[in-house]
Design a protein that fits this description.
The chain is mainly α and about 170 residues long. The chain is built from 6 helices and no strands. The chain is about 65% helix and about 0% strand. The longest helix has about 35 residues.
Length: about 170
């Protein structure tokens, strides 16, 4: 994600510099490429948000729930998210397939194949789907009310310097 953002930044910088130094040679499709890169980065990082509890949700309400009800709400949330992400994968692929079928390209000088841009939706949704399935399994079969609270990072996902010592050590 960082690499995609860095490439978008460099292209934007080149575009701005090009406009002031030699407007005739400025990259005419820079904004388009920046949008493609940022969309891909956002769709990829969305699965990391699932992993880290970073998606928007009512944390205040969840923090007030007893662990038993928190678990039920999280399982329900995961089930709804799995269905939603699966639908995004399905319909996203339909969009990609249609774009391939009609050989759709962008309207700029770049003539970028739009199926590559549209592919960000099913790919990002599939990544989120996998993360929600992992989360569903954890909350369904491996729920630990001491460590699986709202906003808590799972032990193996914490940076090494921040991980709490294991109780057996």
């Amino acid at each position: 994600m960082g690499l995609l953002g860095l490439i978008a930044l460099v292209i934007g910088l080149l575009q701005v510099i090009g406009r002031y130094i030699d407007p005739a040679r400025a990259i005419s499709y820079a904004e388009e490429v920046i949008v493609y890169l940022i969309i891909w980065a956002i769709m990829i990082v969305s699965s990391q948000l699932v992993r880290r509890d970073g998606h928007v949700r009512p944390d205040l309400v969840l923090r007030l729930l007893p662990p038993r009800y928190l678990r039920l709400v999280e399982i329900f949330n995961c089930l709804v998210a799995v269905v939603f992400c699966a639908a995004l994968v399905w319909y996203g692929w339909q969009i990609v397939d249609t774009s391939l079928l009609i050989d759709e390209t962008s309207s700029t000088d770049l003539q970028f194949p739009m199926w590559i841009y549209y592919l960000a939706l099913p790919v990002g949704s599939a990544l989120m789907l996998v993360r929600y399935l992992i989360r569903l399994v954890r909350f369904t079969f491996y729920f630990d009310p001491e460590t699986m609270t709202v906003g808590h990072l799972f032990q193996e996902e914490m940076p090494s310097g921040l991980a709490a010592p294991h109780p057996d050590r």
